[in-house]
Design goal:
Blueprint: E1 25-33, H1 39-46, E2 55-57, E3 76-78, E4 82-87, E5 92-98, H2 109-113, E6 118-123, H3 132-141, E7 145-150, H4 160-167, E8 175-178, H5 183-206
Parallel strand pairs: 1-5, 1-6, 6-7, 7-8
Antiparallel strand pairs: 2-3, 4-5
Helix pairs in contact: 1-5
């Protein structure tokens, strides 16, 4: 059998997809939250490389199994993880891992959280109750996290103190607002996590 040989030049990786520059430190961060809160959107908006997503169309097989109150119109779901990367500066690069939101995929968290330095919990104030179990799991795993309230246009706005009480959060845990569609807003949420981690590290050193 004859095989045609293409004259087209070989295509290598894009410049934006290269690995860590020399001397930079890579840190693993997890984006977590309930179904439909904007995790995939956030990773895609902030990533400086083409994000890896594992979104699949939801089918009738999930009827009666998945409970997605308030997000019934969403017809796709992350079935494994999302992945992206953002350079904070020349010395620090964050590798972002978005978790699946549906509870039947939470068994994947064990691998996703391995080696993670911290997490961002995305919250939709229209369905704040979906974050209760997620925050409990993070606390049980002793994973430091910040809460980022995703600014959906029709979502109610609550004072930080009210949100802290509703989520039963320690006073030290930062709560920030975030538009998961906006790169700079997502970057600010990640910087809040980095600042919080630095505060925790300093407290441990002085203890």
């Amino acid at each position: 059998m004859d095989y045609a040989i293409s004259d087209a030049p070989a295509v290598g990786p894009r410049g934006t997809d290269v690995l860590l520059p020399y001397g930079a430190r890579g840190v693993k961060v997890v984006i977590v939250g309930g179904f439909g809160v904007g995790k995939t959107t956030m990773v895609g908006a902030v990533s400086e490389i083409a994000p890896l997503t594992t979104e699949e169309t939801m089918t009738q097989a999930g009827v009666g199994i998945d409970n997605n109150p308030g997000a019934e119109g969403k017809n796709t779901t992350t079935v494994a993880m999302d992945f992206g990367r953002i350079s904070i500066n020349e010395e620090l690069i964050l590798y972002l891992f978005g978790t699946p939101g549906q509870e039947r995929f939470w068994f994947l968290w064990n691998g996703i959280f391995e080696g993670a330095l911290g997490a961002v919990v995305l919250v939709d104030t229209r369905r704040i109750e979906v974050c209760f179990e997620i925050i409990t799991r993070l606390e049980d795993r002793r994973v430091p996290f910040v809460v980022a309230v995703n600014s959906f246009p029709e979502a109610p706005q609550h004072p930080v103190a009210v949100l802290r009480t509703a989520l039963d959060l320690n006073e030290s845990v930062p709560i920030v607002t975030c538009d998961a569609r906006d790169r700079s807003s997502c970057r600010d949420a990640l910087l809040s996590l980095m600042g919080y981690l630095c505060t925790l590290a300093a407290a441990q050193e002085s203890a």
